[in-house]
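Thread amino acids onto this structure.
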């Protein structure tokens, strides 16, 4: 897409993403209500507007990177006297939401954007702050084919993989399914390591077997929850994230919402959601999600 990108939400993810757009020579105008985010964005050369409406005026693309679906819908519709961005934007503006939100909310956002005469794409990301800074994010995109072609070159300035998953909401659907696998598999790997400890197995022995057998998965071989076998995993730095427990708890609540609204007979997804809510509420919010293993160990019989 040529033309200016209004970039709303310059937090942990949005800040470095906007900086990469600027680095690539794209025209960007940012807005964030939090002064610290504004200062950080300015330091990266991102010009900032005084309001979201000001940023959106004259923009070809409205890119949102906000905490939740409610934030996205409120920004689109307007709330507490702030004008809705759908009414401020020029006709046929591309509303590109990169936040992680409920599939139902993403479909609602698309429906109201289309109703207002605009275009809509959901493009949540994986890769975390490290990927946002390095420009190596993966984007999971829900879009009409022509809209996908429009946003792909923009997303490629911030990421290395851009996957078209289907129509409106399909990006969020892919993200929530993937993260449910991740949440459940990290618990499974952690329970197996604690069981191995009780049975007298070394971490390395279990790793050497499972990493080359049917227990192989990302939670084991990349984000290994015990220190040692994978030197770069967060377990080696006292579970400094990485992917924070609060974010895993959020993503599993989105999974739970999707499971409930579709009526899937899932048992592990809801249980994983409960387990990570507990982890986040008891000190794990700011630790890497693989720190769940310490909860399992602490609650086990001695
Ligand atoms: P964050 O809280 O650091 O940033 C969100 C920013 O949005 C904040 O600076 C906030 O002030 C701003 N904001 C709120 N309302 C706004 C509005 N109306 N207009 C403009 N700005 C507004 O969160 P984050 O970690 O950057 O995450 C953003 C999104 O990306 C979330 O949906 C999250 O789930 C998703 N995500 C995060 C990560 C991660 O590792 N942090 C990874 C993948 C996906």
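Threaded sequence (302 positions):
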């Amino acid at each position: 897409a040529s033309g200016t990108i209004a970039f709303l939400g310059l937090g942990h993810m949005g800040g470095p993403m906007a900086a990469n757009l600027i680095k690539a020579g794209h025209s960007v105008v940012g807005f964030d209500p939090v002064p610290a985010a504004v200062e950080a964005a300015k330091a990266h050369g991102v010009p900032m507007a005084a309001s979201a409406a000001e940023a959106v005026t004259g923009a070809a693309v409205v890119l949102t990177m906000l905490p939740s679906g409610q934030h996205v819908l409120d920004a689109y519709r307007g709330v507490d006297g702030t004008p809705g961005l759908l009414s401020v934007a020029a006709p046929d503006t591309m509303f590109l939401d990169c936040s992680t939100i409920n599939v139902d909310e993403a479909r609602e956002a698309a429906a109201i954007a289309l109703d207002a005469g605009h275009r809509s794409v959901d493009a949540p990301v994986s890769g975390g702050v490290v990927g946002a800074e390095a420009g190596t994010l993966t984007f999971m995109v829900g879009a009409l084919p022509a809209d996908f072609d429009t946003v792909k070159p923009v997303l490629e300035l911030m990421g290395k993989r851009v996957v078209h998953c289907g129509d409106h909401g399909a990006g969020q659907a892919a993200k929530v399914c993937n993260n449910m696998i991740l949440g459940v598999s990290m618990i499974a790997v952690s329970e197996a390591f604690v069981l191995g400890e009780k049975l007298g197995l070394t971490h390395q022995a279990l790793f050497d077997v499972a990493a080359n057998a049917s227990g192989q998965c990302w939670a084991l071989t990349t984000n290994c929850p015990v220190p040692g076998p994978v030197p770069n995993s967060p377990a080696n730095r006292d579970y400094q994230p990485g992917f924070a427990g609060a974010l895993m708890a959020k993503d599993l609540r989105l999974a739970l919402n999707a499971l409930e609204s579709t009526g899937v007979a899932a048992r592990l997804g809801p249980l994983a959601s409960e387990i990570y809510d507990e982890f986040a509420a008891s000190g794990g919010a700011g630790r890497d999600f693989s720190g769940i293993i310490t909860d399992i160990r602490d609650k086990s019989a001695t």
